[in-house]
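Lab notebook, design round three. We kept the backbone fixed and only want residue identities now. Task for the bench partner: fill in a sequence for the structure below.
Input structure tokens:
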């Protein structure tokens, strides 16, 4: 990797390699390979492409690649198939529209159709009280 950066020709390659090895200790070889490939191909943002990366920058990119590898290998969740639900009849939808627009008779009809629904029952009571 060091030979790919001409401005780093003056550095001692053995010392630089040792620093890299210390920095990436314990990281998987695939992550190290991916990070080296990204640096050499110029894909790492905010990196001066004339110089070899510092050992800290290289280790950081290796950790990012390790996280990407782990994310790629994580099992994917399958979406549950959508259960077909019965469609609401058109007359019920019309009643809901009418009730939303303030129709007292629609509110009473909905309360009769759905007596267990406290919201509809309250709206029907309010509508009855308003007519008194």
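Proposed sequence:
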């Amino acid at each position: 990797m060091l030979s790919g950066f001409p401005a780093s020709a003056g550095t001692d390659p053995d010392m630089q390699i040792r620093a890299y090895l210390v920095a990436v200790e314990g990281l998987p070889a695939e992550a190290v390979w991916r990070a080296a490939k990204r640096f050499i191909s110029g894909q790492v943002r905010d990196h001066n492409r004339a110089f070899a990366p510092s050992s800290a920058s290289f280790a950081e990119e290796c950790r990012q690649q390790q996280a990407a590898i782990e994310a790629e290998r994580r099992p994917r969740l399958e979406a549950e198939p959508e259960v077909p639900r019965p469609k609401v009849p058109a007359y019920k939808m019309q009643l809901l529209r009418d009730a939303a627009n303030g129709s007292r008779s629609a509110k009473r009809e909905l309360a009769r159709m759905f007596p267990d629904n406290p919201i509809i029952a309250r709206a029907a009571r309010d509508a009855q009280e308003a007519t008194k």
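Keep this in mind before ordering anything: Helices lie at 13-23, 29-40, 55-73, 90-100, 104-113, 118-131.
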